[in-house]
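Exercise: predict the fold of this chain.
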Amino acid sequence: MKENHHQEGDALDKKSVLIGAKISMAQRSLFWFLNFFYPAFYKVDRTYLKDMCDSIQAFVEQNEKRILVVNVPPRHGKSFTATGLAKWLLGKFPWKKLMTGSYNETLSGTFARQVRNTIDTRKSSRNNMVYRDIFPNTKVKKGEASAQIWALEGSEEKSYLATSPSGTATGFGANVLLIDDIIKNSEEAYNENVLNKHWDWFTNTMMSRLEGDDWKIILIMTRWAKGDLAGRVIEAFPDDVKTITYSAIQEDGSMLCEEVLNERDYKLKTKEMSEDIVQANYNQKPIDVKGRLYNDFKVWDTKPRDKDGVEIPVMTLNYTDTADTGKDNLCSINYFVHNKEAYVTEIVYTDEAMEITEPLVVDLLYTGSVNRSIIESNNGGRGFARNIERLMKSKYNDNATVITPLVQSKNKEARILASSAWVGEHVYMPHNWKNKFPAFTGEVLSYQRKGKNAHDDGVDVLASIYEQITGKLEITIQSKTGIGLVPSSRRKIRKGSLRNL
């Protein structure tokens, strides 16, 4: 009997030691604080969450910079971490004054109640661990019934204020400003008046409330566009901002966290979503919506038919821009022309090496029954057309596709800009093109009229299609005999020479 009591006592002692260790870790660490209360989400093997929490904590405690911008994909614990941070800060640093900003008064009130109620939670049993087990000296002052603004015991001033761009911060000073997602949807994100209102609220109201010699601003949000609050903060205060960024899709193609968002669900959720929103929200690649060249493209479903419903025969054409340098992508587009409108059928868009891209283009031409392919052969691409013709014969024993190598002589940027109005009105993409060709879509829908662009290969091919159809093609052709190219013979394509293609 005594032995059983002794064993039970040892078990209780071990449990007490374990709980004591967890409490001590939760006091010192934001991640372990969140893990203590929400272990099902803040799992140790979710490394991005631990990294995010540790980075936020290090910024608060050690970093000399004033502003932290944290960009996280949807449903990855962004707001969860924001409310947890507020709770932990008031326990770890009860003398600090905290101001939080949310989208509207309803959400800011919800945020505030979650923080206040967690601090105020009483134990219902000995084994029920609550906030006061970790931070016993942090208590909401009696009589502070408001959810929006309240004080902690021992403080002569208000300790916490929750507000929004439509709320007020009058009479409240803060050491820490925590802003959690103040954009509701894409309509707001692309509304210049709304974005300007957010900026005025941030600079004229919120920043004026900060006090002390160690104040901090923490902005946790999903990116939308370059002009959103995170983007403007980074641009306005480049030397005072630290950024923490997490993309749903990693550089190697894997997901940030398969348990939180797997590849299948990602594709399903983003299937009908605008590509610019997908890239900004999930992969932290916001674009300047006002400055982009194309907003979207028209879509076609069925090939043209005559008045009797019979499908009209069309020639399938192709234009290929090879990857001239290591930074370029290969872009090859199959399309047909009807009534001087271009209907895209298939696209290959890749940064793979030539030994991969050559077979891809060969398959594209053969399976698409392409009648004529024009291959832009500047610089490193001069042998590409020759290899494509050779592979068409060796792999498919096919010479039905007439392959014409070309050297582009006009300024690329000027061509792209000059063609954009026509391309936007007269180029039709196939149904579901954004999902079929995501890399191509990402380039053409983010290409900026002014400023730097990472890639221009897709928009360049669209410009070339415009030039072919409208008879404005000004490209030097290298004539050929058989498979070999003879660069000494050159001529210009005269205006109108491709009108009947």
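Check your answer against the key: The radius of gyration is 30 Å.
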